[in-house]
Design goal:
The chain is α/β, with parallel strands linked by helices. The protein has helices at residues 9-15, 31-38, 53-60, 64-80, 103-116, 132-142, 162-171, 199-208, 217-231, 238-243; strands at 26-27, 44-50, 84-90, 120-125, 151-155, 176-177. A 6-stranded parallel sheet has the order 1-2-3-4-5-6. α6 (132-142) packs parallel to α7 (162-171).
Length: 247
């Protein structure tokens, strides 16, 4: 009811061809979602809350504190089935409903998810309002309280700041970054928010900075052109547009 985009997740998981070298994590909003996911042979789940009370109410229809209570049985069942749990914290740099988000709240929510059993925390700039300066301030405030090796960044590119924000994370020791091919995505509860940073643009920056990702950027670019054409949408990757499709 509250996240209709997840309604056909079971069908999607049953129809994709899985590469044994890849992990296919799935978002589960509640215990029912996990029970459904377990029938698909998943090995990792994502649970999600926010550092904003207002956004949490809009996104998953409960308070931040209530979201922990919801997670408890989900986490218990996941552990019983040896499933890895990843925690997502939305609106770390700003909220479309309440505006400013306190750094202390971001740290507290992240710490709570780790205590509950999450192996990694993905910090999300859900509406893409963060800038390199703001993300630097945030990370300097919260990383003293969190193990950096268990922190990831999830930067949306609404204002074109995502690649710069990721670079700031890189400078602060973070090594895991979420992205989406061609910049697909958004959020049904954050009007105007664009998708996550384009994988193509992220790879271009990382490779140009001397990082070895093990990912073939040319193949990702071709994939981005394919899915953009299939969906009849403008490719959200600047790198893909600059290079164009291969002949």
């Amino acid at each position: 009811k509250w996240v209709p985009q997840l309604g056909d997740a079971k069908e999607v998981m049953s129809r994709i061809s899985r590469n044994p070298q890849c992990v296919y994590p799935v978002l589960v909003p509640n215990l029912k979602g996990l029970e459904s996911a377990l029938t698909c042979g998943i090995s990792e789940i994502g649970i999600f809350t926010a550092a904003s009370e207002a956004f949490c109410k809009k996104n998953i229809n409960c308070s931040i504190e209530e979201s922990y209570d919801r997670f408890a049985p989900t986490i218990k069942l996941a552990k019983e089935n040896d499933i890895t749990i990843r925690g997502y914290v939305s609106c770390i740099a700003g909220c479309p409903y309440q505006g400013h988000v306190d750094h202390g709240t971001v740290a507290e929510v992240s710490q709570k998810l780790l205590e509950m059993g999450c192996s990694e925390i993905s910090l999300g700039d859900t509406i893409g309002v963060g800038t390199p300066g703001k993300i630097k301030e945030l990370l300097q405030a919260i990383l003293p309280h969190l193990p950096v090796e268990q922190v990831a960044l999830h930067m949306h590119d609404t204002y074109g700041q995502a690649v710069g924000n990721v670079f700031v994370g890189l400078e602060h020791g973070i090594r895991v970054f979420d992205s989406s091919v061609s910049g697909l995505g958004g959020c049904p509860y954050a009007r105007g928010a664009s998708g996550n940073v384009a994988t193509e643009d992220l790879l271009y920056m990382l490779h140009g900075s001397g990082c070895d990702t093990g990912v073939n950027i040319d193949q990702v670019i071709e994939t981005g052109h394919f899915i953009s054409g299939f969906l009849d949408r403008i490719n959200g990757s600047k790198v893909a547009i600059a290079r164009g499709p291969s002949s």
